[in-house]
User: Which sequence fits this backbone?
């Protein structure tokens, strides 16, 4: 399994966004987590497609776009056109997730389905075979720098078992409160793509990105 750090630019200094992204990219981190928030599905509003288009021009990282918006199907085409590589929609926000996932694949992008902490894994019963990634929120979505919700560890474990029992290779991404105190638990539970916002961006962005990149590379090396 491949382990990836996906630094969330929600915690970056937007006045120096290009520099911040370069700092993580230069350490060899492959993914970049991009949260689009609409002020409806989640309380806050982050940024939209003009920003994604601009940063696409200066970065070759895998753009891991997390649509925290109501009726995300309205924006799938624009997300793809902006330069996303992975498009993740929330099961709670979408009336026809099966159709939305198909649309993402038709546009040549990887599809992710996201679940809030208290949303049951049963939402995945008929979708798991269709997605490339499941994003499990490990905080209630909407803000960076929140505390990891401990019951999510069991949920990650349960999902990894479900994936293995079905003979799939689906990625599990965890998002929210991932830092030095929680990283071991989510890795041991079976997550392989780790979003980290406040643990990476800040005064020592490059140093933090390198620390977690290396930790994941070592973990991968020891779990072949
Ligand atoms: O989805 C999110 C919040 O809703 C974000 O990805 C958030 O940036 C994670 O931040 P942190 O690592 O600081 O918890």
Assistant:
């Amino acid at each position: 399994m491949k382990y990836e750090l996906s630094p969330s630019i929600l915690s970056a200094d937007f006045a120096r966004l290009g520099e911040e992204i370069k700092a993580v990219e230069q350490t060899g981190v492959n993914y970049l987590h991009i949260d689009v928030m609409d002020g409806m599905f989640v309380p806050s509003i982050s940024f939209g497609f003009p920003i994604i288009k601009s940063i696409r021009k200066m970065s070759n990282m895998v753009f891991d776009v997390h649509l925290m918006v109501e009726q995300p199907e309205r924006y799938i085409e624009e997300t793809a056109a902006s330069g996303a590589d992975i498009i993740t929609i929330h099961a709670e926000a979408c009336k026809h997730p099966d159709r939305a996932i198909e649309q993402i694949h038709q546009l040549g992008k990887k599809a992710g389905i996201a679940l809030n902490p208290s949303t049951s894994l049963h939402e995945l019963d008929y979708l798991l075979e269709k997605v490339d990634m499941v994003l499990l929120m490990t905080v209630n979505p909407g803000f960076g720098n929140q505390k990891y919700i401990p019951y999510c560890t069991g949920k990650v474990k349960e999902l990894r078992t479900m994936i293995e029992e079905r003979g799939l290779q689906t990625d599990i991404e965890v998002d929210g409160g991932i830092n030095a105190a929680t990283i071991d638990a989510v890795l041991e539970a079976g997550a392989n793509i780790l979003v980290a916002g406040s643990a990476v961006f800040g005064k020592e962005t490059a140093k933090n990105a390198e620390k977690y990149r290396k930790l994941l590379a070592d973990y991968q090396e020891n779990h072949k």
